[in-house]
Amino acid sequence: SGRIGCDDFSTGMPAMFKTLLKNFFLIALFAAVPLMGAHGAETAAPDSAPAQAHSEVTVGSAAPIFVLPDVRGGEVSLPGLLTEGPVVLSFYRGSWCPYCNDQLYGFQEVLPEIEKLGAKLVAVSPELPESAMDMALKKQLTFHVLHDQNNAIARTYGLIWPVPDDKRAWLDGKLKEKHGKNLAEFNGIETYELPIPATFVINSDGTIVYLFKDPDYTKRADNKDILAALKTLSEAGESKKTK
Question: By the 8 A CB rule, do 181 and 106 touch?
């Protein structure tokens, strides 16, 4: 058994990017569809393989585009970010997950290096903005933290993990005991789904050039590998100077 623990951008853009923009409306439709399933707990690996609702997104794939609210206010779009250079996109479970917090702290530590290489960093979770913002402020995170309602964008990246039926009450109990609220209260939806933690490096044309994901949420992308991917893009002339 498994274990669980506690904007119009089309003018002058590359052809691949125009294709991505055309697909945006399909993604918006998925965002409006009620979701099913769920992941979870505060510390360990899943009981079963993740449910995939879309064709596999992998290295060489066009990154599914999105527009999501920043927990500090305003909206952030992948097309907008890519006009400035590559993007490091990371999905995490929530501020209640210690492994996620460790990864976010680690991102903040290497953020100057990421930005020096001309890239932007965004972190995405299904957690309601108020909770995610509290965490971002407490941890002094200066990169974008985005709210993915109903895991709609995580779904387009093939990152949905359903919380097993027999673990839901246990998970809610643990979260309630430690944080004073259950998963539904953290995410604002009764659906028991969480994103598989994953990190992507996307070049300025919208192509995924690096990917790390693992259903065992205790395993995360190595920041050295992320920086190496960005350095390769920089050497190839992908990164644009941002000042």
Answer: no
